[in-house]
């Protein structure tokens, strides 16, 4: 099918099902089309209010712009969402295929990102092709479920746990493949520190390989931060070596390699869009059998369109789909807006409220201001606020939400759980704190 014919089918499908417009906007900008399809795209784009996105309104808007609507009604019958997305992928990747052929003929891209971009786009088409294979009845899954249950009974390796946050384990009862976990926090409220320590504790406890998309800091900065946590060397000493003491330098030289060697994860730190992220995750799964994908943070995943909330809604859905497809846990950080400083709830996610909808578990971390909150109530007990962080189990698809636990930072920003709404359980697991 020619590119022009696919473009016509895309517009026709949107007229049959206006919800397809949201998918189209994620893949294309107006300049990706030509002639009448370019005009149609701009007409749809000007219908900003979702209430306007109806078959009748869209048809009238095209007619008022002087377009022949009848040619779209002749293209064919309505298609489902998966088929429409596949068609968008094919259309958007025609140019990528041409570039790929040029590479095979000796064309040299300017940088490695060009190759990864093309590779990611082509992988998207190959993966979508698999969705059209004949589906098996659910009865075929029973044998696989029984095998999984037997393995989990004999060995807990498939249940992902933390070795330092018992309340996290109690709330989740261990993470399973296919889970999407989100940690939200306002700026400078501890979400990255808590996320990284949770990541390290999971790697150590569950002995799995992880893939890290570090979109906010470089790989080198990330490693310095981890060295600071594990070797207990102030982070600002590592950022500015002139601050390093002789003892710090000896500690890094003697223990640095062994400290990092136990951190079983891969790092990708370049700017990235959703297609490349999914492609890289699939490669990691195939080559290294990663069991966990860590993203810092979802708001830094690039996209084409202008309606950021809709795009991030789509991105969070795709991250959940990626977790299910690869049978991994996806652990993503998300930003709370300014209101989240005073009211840290899922309603104040800076990116999109849909992140809460798509997550299996959502945690919100905050640091109550000592000036305004002299005490904190946890486990029905008032305790002095000594600069503690509070983690709330905000939302869950699988367990009761609403409980909280307290994290106490040390000088090196290691966060240690010291108090929890899971009172009796917490005391049982941490008798040394109450002796």
From TrEMBL:
* Biological process, per Gene Ontology: DNA replication
GO MF: ATP binding; DNA helicase activity
Q: Locate the SF4 helicase domain: which residues?
A: 154-435
Keyword tags: ATP-binding, Helicase, Hydrolase, Nucleotide-binding
What the entry lists under InterPro entries is as follows: DNA_helicase_DnaB-like_C, P-loop_NTPase
Q: Is Nucleotide-binding included in the keywords of this UniProt record?
A: yes
Residue ranges annotated as coiled coil are: none
Single GO cellular component annotation?
A: cytosol
Q: Which Gene3D superfamilies match?
A: P-loop containing nucleotide triphosphate hydrolases
Q: What is this protein called?
A: Putative helicase
């Amino acid at each position: 099918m020619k590119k022009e014919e696919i473009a016509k089918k895309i517009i026709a499908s949107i007229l049959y099902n206006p919800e397809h417009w949201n998918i189209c906007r994620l893949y294309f900008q107006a300049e990706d089309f030509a002639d009448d399809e370019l005009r149609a795209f701009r007409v749809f784009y000007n219908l900003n209010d979702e209430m306007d996105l109806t078959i009748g309104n869209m048809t009238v808007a095209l007619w008022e712009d002087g377009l022949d609507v009848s040619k779209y009604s002749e293209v064919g019958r309505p298609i489902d969402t998966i088929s429409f997305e596949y068609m968008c992928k094919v259309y958007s990747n025609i140019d990528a295929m041409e570039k790929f052929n040029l590479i095979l003929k000796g064309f040299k891209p300017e940088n490695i990102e060009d190759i990864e971009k093309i590779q990611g786009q082509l992988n998207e088409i190959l993966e979508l092709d698999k969705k059209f294979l004949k589906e098996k009845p659910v009865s075929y899954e029973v044998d696989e479920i029984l095998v999984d249950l037997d393995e989990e009974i004999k060995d807990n390796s498939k249940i992902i746990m933390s070795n330092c946050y018992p309340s996290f384990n109690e709330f989740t009862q261990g993470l399973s493949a296919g889970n999407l976990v989100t940690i939200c926090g306002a700026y400078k409220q501890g979400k990255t520190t808590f996320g990284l320590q949770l990541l390290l504790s999971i790697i150590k406890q569950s002995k799995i390989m992880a893939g890290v998309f570090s979109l906010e800091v470089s790989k080198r900065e990330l490693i310095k931060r981890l060295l600071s946590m594990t070797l207990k060397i102030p982070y600002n000493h590592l950022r500015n070596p002139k601050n390093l003491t002789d003892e710090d330098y000896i500690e890094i030289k003697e223990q640095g390699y062994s400290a990092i060697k136990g951190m079983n994860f891969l790092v990708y730190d370049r700017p990235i869009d959703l297609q490349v992220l999914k492609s890289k995750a699939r490669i990691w799964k195939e080559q290294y059998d990663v069991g966990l994908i860590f993203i810092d943070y979802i708001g830094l995943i690039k996209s084409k369109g202008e309606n950021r909330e809709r795009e991030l809604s789509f991105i969070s859905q795709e991250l959940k789909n990626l977790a299910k497809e690869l049978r991994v846990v996806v652990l993503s950080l998300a930003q709370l807006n300014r209101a989240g400083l005073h009211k840290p709830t899922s309603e104040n996610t800076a990116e999109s409220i849909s992140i809460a909808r798509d997550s299996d578990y959502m945690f919100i971390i905050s640091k109550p201001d000592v000036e305004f909150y002299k005490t904190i109530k946890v486990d029905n007990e008032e305790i002095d606020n000594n600069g503690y962080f509070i983690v709330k189990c905000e939302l869950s698809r699988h367990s009761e939400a609403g409980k909280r636990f307290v994290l106490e930072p040390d000088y090196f920003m290691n966060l240690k759980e010291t108090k929890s709404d899971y009172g009796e359980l917490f005391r049982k697991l941490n008798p040394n704190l109450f002796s």
